[in-house]
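Study this fold:
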Amino acid sequence: MDRFLCFFFLLASVALINGQVIPDIIAISQGDVIPEIIAHSQGTSASSQVTTASSLDTTASTQVTGSTVTGTDACVDAKVADVVFLVDSSGSIGSTNFQEVREFLQTVVSGLDIGPDNVRVGLAQYNQDPVLEFSLLEHMDKNSLLAELGNLPYLEGGTQTGEAIDFIRTQLFNENAGSRASQGVPQIAVVITDGVSGDDVVQPALRLREHGVTVFAIGVGGAIVNELDAIANQPSENFRFLIDSFQSLQSVSEVVLENICNAINNKFSIPGPPAACVNATVADVVFLVDSSGSIGSVNFQEVREFLQTVVSGFDIGPDNVRVGLAQYNQNPVLEFSLMEHLDKDSLLAELGNLPYLGGGTQTGRAIDFIRTQLFNESAGSRASQGVPQIAVVITDGASGDDVVQPALRLREHGVTVFAIGVGGANVIELEAIANQPSDDFRFLIDNFQSLQSLSEVVLETICESISNPTQVPGPPACVNATEADVVFLVDSSGSIGSANFQEVREFLQNVVSGLDIGPDNVRVGLAQYNQDPVLEFSLMEHMDKNSLLAELDNLPYLGGDTQTGEAIDFIRTQLFNESAGSRASQGVPQIAVVITDGASGDGVVQPALRLRDHGVTVFAIGVGGGANVNELEAIANQPSDDFRFLIDSFQSLQNVSEVVLENICDAITDQLRACVDATVADVVFLVDSSGSIGSTDFQEVRRFLRTVVSEFDIGPDNVRVGLAQCNQDPFLEFSLLEHTNKDSLLAELDNLPFRGGCTETGEAIDFIRTQLFNENAGSRASQGVAQIAVVITDGVSGDDVVQPALRLRQHGVTVFAIGVGGANVNELDAIANQPSENFRFLIDSFQSLQSVSEVVLENICNAITDQFSIPGPPACVDATVADVVFLVDSSGSIGSTDFQEVRRFLRTVVSGLNIGPDNVRVGLAQYNQDPVLEFSLLEHTNKDSLLAELGNLPFRGGSTDTGEALDFIRTQLFNESAGSRAKQGVPQIAVVITDGVSTDDVVQPALRLRQHEVTVFAIGVGLVNVTELDAIANQPSEDFRFLIDNFQSLQNVSEVVLENICESINDQLPDDDSTDTTASSQDTTTSSRDDGITDTTVSSQDTTASSPDDGVTDTTVSSQGDDSTATTASSQACVNATVADVVFLVDSSGSIGSTDFQEVRRFLRTVVSEFDIGPDNVRVGLAQCNQDPFLEFSLMEHLDKDSLLAELDNLPFRGGCTETGEAIDFIRTQLFNESAGSRASQGVSQIAVVITDGVSGDDVVQPALRLRQHSVTVFAIGVGGGANVTELDAIANQPSEDFRFLIDNFQSLQSVSEVVLENICESITNHIQACVNATVADVVFLVDGSRSIGSANFQEVREFLRTVVSGFDIGPDNIRVALVQYSTNPFLEFLLLEHMDKNSLLVELDNLPYRLGGTQTGEAIDFIRTQLFNENAGSRASKGVPQIAVVITDGDSQDDVVQPALRLREHGVTVFAIGVGGANVIELEAIANQPSEDFRFLINNFQSLQRLREVVLETICESITNPIPVTGPPDDEDDLMIQGRVYLHIKAQVNFTLGVNVTEILQQFIINATREFCDDCQLDFNSTTVTLDQSP
């Protein structure tokens, strides 16, 4: 640290000699700055608890009294507010520090819009007493207010903050003192203090906030965070500030101002209760407060304050929220009922005087008390009117009595219960008291001092509960569990004991309380058992909850042995029957709950099996170590996680009551939920009865069938069931017509014979299709009834299953497959519908069949009710209308075997389509050397005939002429006489299937087909040519082109092909996400370089980005012989691009040649095809360029698409040389004018597309500039190695990635057609969007004219200025422009008042002189602030017109820029900085507004200025229309910026010289100081130097 002090004493000495003070540097010696530098370099962030401000700030100097802060963006709209400052003036501050307070107040107030109808400011000081300095009515203009603040007296004395807060509430925030709260004007208080208050601040601050005042708290030095948090609004990061010293006040002035403005604009949700409480207007809320001796009087005060805080957030009133309260110790005490305090003031006063009782803790008794004495109508409860009933229990210890039953009764009474536990409270008790889930209703804190911190969340949660009342009682699953028959079977044997049996009674009461009891709802029966079962009551006896609960309360305890098996049979025969009240025949769920504590003395397996087979869902609860897990598993349904419970003791029964209840309700609602609506279907079971199963396992099959069938609504008009077995031969057991009632069907299943034999599953599948799924056997498929097959097998089939299963599914049958044991998964997947998780089941053994019965049943019912989209993917549901033509390669290379796979594929795809004369029509042609029409779109108008035709499709053999076949389907099938409905807007789809290379050309035929508005899919099999497929299919290839290894794989892609066809039908064509300018079929690699601009190079093989040094983005598209064709579909961008004038300028020079020119014609046709051509829509003109430009047709000639396309098809190739510049001038003068059809004067977008393959023989820069200045957007497409990138960039608009394209050869033109089209359309629809509304502003350019630039580079500056200004709406009432050039001195070129039209302004810019000299940027910035941004010079700042400055420079300034730039921005000017070449980044940062990515631009050379023009123009326009915040701290992530700012700030403050090494000294000092704290920190100081004016 000696180095620190020595250095600073030296600096201080020199400073004193020069009569200067350097407070910022001295601050460094106190350790304020360097730690911040290190914090940034290490990536640390400020603590979330404390907001600490550094005493170094680059935008505020402590030497300036009353320095102003430019209003942040938030303050632009913060026009009206009442702001009161409350300033601590106690003795601990001192007069020196109080001066800092005065300056802070002046700074903040400077940023406010002061006025009688705008922002009013009042102020009070305080020590031991508050003192009113001035009210809100006294200072109505900023000048008098600032003067008053400058003379604010310092009082000294004590610190009574609480009293002072009450003072400003009563004396300043009232109408007499100028408050406009009654008019809805925001009320803001800012409290500044440096120490602990001598009185309480919590209640005064609470009263102030409840008074509708938003409170900010600023603590300095020894201020206490807890006090500040109690004073300020929340969250603390917005309203509470803590700084080290008064010297740091200025550093937080800007953020304090911004947050005040945000509060005025209501960007913080203040004041008042949480949002949830806005609608929580009606409720009855009862507080139950523990007032026992363990709390103590001090802590009880915290309870009073907590209650007041929470209640303050309620809308208290007789018709709104009512509040009652009881306290308790060993006895409950009623403090006040819900009827007593019906206004907030009396209620808060009552709470403030709440007496403390002391004594014991009997929480259970107190809970019963509030239920009976407060939650009733006479005490003010409005439960009968549906008003939410809320209880809040606050306690600090374990209760001396039981809380479980009282809390249960309270919740069953319809009350939502919150529990707050403090300190030693018992968590288990709190859980038992509160509603669930505990996250929402139970709170646990360490001490009473933490209650306040909980008040807001408790209030919000209560309000949410009021707004969205909790479902009480029972878990959510029970809401819909409205109908069931539930029987409890209770073990009452001697091993339990009477004490434990009481736990059983309470458990039963808890569970039953959650059920919706009633004769038409849930019925409950109960039996007990020891060695014998005893019926307690049937399902018919207790039809209301009260009588049922009373019965359970008196349930007798029997004692004796344990014969569980006999008891299970007993409830099946005596309770689950119609005479005992069972409604099983009506489809009501049947539930049994068995509770036992030991092993049964008899067998339970068969009785439990009989019970479940009887259609009863069984839950088993085992208690204690005596319960047998295996027995419980045998009794309960599966899976055990849901139906079997094992607990340690009867005392734990209560712990599982809620989950048992929930699972019962789930079983009621979910068990057969899907089958409620599954009332009509034809279901056929196909059962493997082969020898591999065996008679024992077959019994499990019978049980499974019985379980599933039991849940169907069997009847002749409802669900019909048929069954066949499969062994050596399939065997029909019964058809769909035989069993028309459930009883006869179940009897048949019970006696189903086991036949034995082998496994021929394929034959059996065909059998059920032909013998059962037909009308004679009872199938109602023709009536639209769901057709379901369930195949059960345990082994591999001895024959093929794939084709039979396909035929069955194509027959319209939904197929489920259940494999047991050795079943083959692949076979099962081939049999079943997809996806497999819904239709295929695989289990280990027949004993596990029952475990899947429920899910199988549910999935069958879902299939019946069409909850699975079968057949076909979801996209096909709405794909109801289309014309689909298949073109099938039937050449000799395929072969008859593989052709069978083609037939299967076609049938699969077609099965998923909605076939019909008004729906989807299908046509088909085959081809070899010749195309053959198989059937037109008119022939097969139903699916059956179509599938039959496809099944018999002949194989022809021969060679492969795909191109001719494509033309054939276009002319012979896609026309009206063949059934095409293209003219009606019906989607036209072609699917081409081929396995080899075509012997003729496919590119042109495919192009013609797509231009015929047909969407083309291409499927290649085996050694097919990928390039050909891409040329045939639409793009992108991942959606329209499929490539598979062999014909056996066709089925694997059938579903995705079908889905893509359907998606294309639904949304023809899909959005191809073509926002990228790349056109690659393989790989794209992008590299970055130092100038921040990305290179994108695209190739059909492999692509690597180049890295030029010119700061230009290269979009290069190469192709190695790729004839792939881009999609002709309009991109989304073209939907709205309905009006434009588009001119093509085509290079027809000799370097192209007639062959390549054909590719140009194709490209033009492709792009133009997607325009909405018409006299009032898109007009197209075209000129060619060879020796001389040649007009082919103007914008007036072809006003319909057909004539335009015909003209393009016949476009002549003219040959000659390349004079592109002359041709560009030609289209500007001959085509982009009104007589040639241009509608520029009507605001119609003007677009030019220039296509060239070589370097121009003349200059293109000036002609292109003139064209763009003529308001034409220019695209440039360069082809081959001869095209010059620099020329293309000079021609095209910027950025290059959107407007300039470079491809390898003319064959690749098609590959960029889509992206060119999209970019043209986007340009049409987003025509100069940012500047459309930027109609009024004052813009001043400050241009560096120093000698380092040079005359050639200065010409680039002129052109840049001309381009940017051309985009403005120039006029006296619109945008005004002024310009200053500077070198050693600033020179005024013209004022804002001089050029009021664009023409004179552009002429002035063209003749701008280059002045030479040094670089004094700081002086020049001050010059434009004082000489141009004032009313006399034409500035309209006083009228609210945006003030914009654009600074262009190429080097270091020879004077300071920090303070001048700061003054300019504080003057309300938004500043852009453009640095060229050797410009200093740090200086640019200091000049420009933040964030730097929006306001600071850095380029390598002046030649790059033009590439920047568009983004600069757009950003300026955005700044005019949507002002961006003009100040803000630097990004923590940018170490260079932060370290550089610190260094530059020191340099700016040191206005004297220590000699030639001052820069090195400063840098070395900071490096050394940093190493004191951080060994591995890296600092970078750029190349900034200090100007040497004199020696010390």
